[in-house]
Sequence to fold (153 residues):
Amino acid sequence: MCVKNSMVAGKLFAIASSLLLLTNCATSPTVQVSLEPRSSHSSVETVYSSELSTPSVVTNFLKFHYYMLPEEEPLSQREAIFFALNNLDHDVVTSWYNNKNNTQGHVKVVSSYPTGSGYCRIFLSQIIYKGKQRSFSETACLSNASQSWIFTK
Fold:
């Protein structure tokens, strides 16, 4: 009887282990998508402290917000990106500039490739604000079904 119970317990353990392993194999990392390009709502600051002390966290927070683009500039960045995606050939640069606060940006499509339901374009963009410069590499895909650009992260 004891041997029979051990065999049943062993089989149940084997089944449970197999299910757990299969579940972990079936899950794959998901690709995050957005309707907005990352560069239009990111800070130009890229250097932050890795310390978790309160002064460091506060300093990082203040630096992040100090180097965020002014209110009207994300729109300029988005317009430049969509113009490049919809109209420009590879390696042609479109730029925007704001005299009021010396903010500027540049966007260039560097490659395109087909997907099952449309195509994707990889573009580089650069934003300059308050003496800081930040570069981005992003991918946007256009689906024939939705006819709207989706940005992948």
